[in-house]
Amino acid sequence: MKLTGDPVIDSRNAMDRGRPEDRLLWAYRGGLAAMRRGQFAEAKPLFDEAVTRLNGLLGRDRGARKARSAFYRESKKTFFGEPYERVMAFYYRGILYWMDGEPDNARACFRSAALADSDVEHNAFESDYVLLDYLDGLATSKLGGDGKDALQRAMRSPRIARPPAYDTNANVLVFLEFGTGPTKQAGGEYGEQLQIRPGVSAAQSARIRVAQYDVEVAPYDDLNFQATTRGGRVMDKILAGKANFKRATDTIGDAAVISGAVVAGTTRHNDEAALGLIAAGLLSKIFSAVTKPEADTRAWDNLPLFLTVASLQLPPGQHAVSITFLDAAHRPVPALEKAFQITVPADRRDKVIFVSDQSSTPQTL
Amino acid sequence: MNRSLTLSFALPLGFSALLLGCSSGGVQNPKGIPVTQMNADERGFVAGTGVESQDLVAVTDKMARSILGVRQIASASVAPKIILEPVVNESRFPINKDIFLTSIRTKLNSKSQGKVSFLAREYMAALEKERALKQSGQVTATSDPKAVEFRGADFLLTGKLQGLTTRTKAGTSDYILYSFQLIDARTSEIVWEDSAEIKKQGLEDAAYR
Residue A226 in 3-state DSSP? Predict the structure, then answer.
């Protein structure tokens, strides 16, 4: 497939003409690329497909069955992503719902995201994203409910920064993200171990300047942490089994071929037995060669590293917003300056702004 | 000699049978599944634990029948006017919030034989524009365009989806409570309320866990 260099167009083309197993991977990549350009109408159907398919990820699946088989790679399965990637698909769709004035559907997405992060293998039904709980409670509070429980969960163990108490009168939400997120690589003798390659970020915080506000916002969530701390996958055990099978058949093959050669060389009347041993050994080697224990390293490779949100109170009308991303010494990273013209609506709907350090700039929202 | 020959064939064949036993079975539906037309109230082969068409049909059928039995509607001398307020979604599934009320409205309109009528408040902007055109004389009017004829509502119909989710090694379980209310617009009294519950469970393939 020919790439155009435009991530949104390439994603669309790959979804239509690429491997069906990779369709969702391209939807994720294309959706996020579109959001960074301010093409939210383009992003919506992509994340809609993602959310619908993630919520229907139950029961038998042909690709998954192949992936569990010794003779197919794990990447034969339909890509849904690891939990940190699934969480982000729900998170972005949630932001888009909030932009459309549907904070309850946004909250539904944040709740599904929290479920996707829960660790069932260790019976630890607990998401540890600060933002998912925080936004769940914020949406609830804005809808007239009680968001205190969710806020308490968000406040329980902030790893980087503690989010503020809810300001239900705030009518502007700024979703910020920066850095390059984690990706995947294969480790182990046969590449059977899925390993996370951590992402990096020059920016460690962001400064928002608009109207009377000049505020620095630190990240609440770190995708490196999320990608590396959730615990093992069931698939890891299956891949370890495949690797053992590959190793064992290889060793048995070696032993049988050598034994056959020894029998043929040392005895005169056992040629057929020797031939049988060598043939069995070669067959075992063939089985070893066709066994595919490689871990699936397909990754949503344009994810950010850090996530945060800020809520502001602004009067209706047009406002110029500038976002400066700051390094660890709180100095601006000049290449990452962003400028937005926003129109705050006069009705009670929230104005939702999505800003990435990779967003195109300037944008009018 | 014969025994040795048998051994030389049997050994690799037996070995291959043993190894093949470890591989997977045949591919299911290698040619895909053609488009299958289903009734909206049927559970299809594509299913999750979320809100699906068969839930919508079951819930809205129950609600429409229940509303027709409300005393204020069944015994009203003039058909009460109802406006729809979008349902509030407290579940973990994003939904099209209008679809439940649209379904209830169409079922009531088709089955109530004029016992209720609905006001098209979502088209107020277009209706006001049309009235303004009539008032300005740009288009014809069959009645006095200055008279206020937009009707006020007698009742407000709304609802809520609430969910409980459990996820363990054994799978994911989603319980959704669909509750709907008819509220007297004059007194704020809830004159009717009914609910439906649906619970679904499932487990994803080990390859995705």
Answer: helix
- B54 or A43, which is more confident: A43
pTM of the model: 0.85
- Which residue type, as a one-letter code, is found at position A155? M
Contact: A235, B23; criterion CB under 8 Å: no
Instruction: State the amino acid at position A251 in one-letter form.
Output: T
Tokens representing A19 are 């491997």
Q: How far is CA A72 from the centre of its chain?
A: 24
CB contact, 8 Å: A66 with chain B? yes
Relative to beta strand A338-344, strand A213-217 is unpaired
SS3 category, A110: helix
Q: Which domains does chain B have, with CATH numbers?
A: 48-140+150-202 (3.40.50.10610)
pLDDT score of B25 more than 50 = no
Domain coordinates of chain A in residue numbers?
7-236+295-364, 237-290
Residues from chain A that touch B91, judged by Cβ atoms under 8 A, are 108, 111
Q: Identify the closest residue of chain A to B30 by CA–CA distance.
A: A62
* pLDDT tens figures, A123-181: 555 678 999 999 999 999 999 999 999 999 998 877 889 899 999 899 999 999 999 99
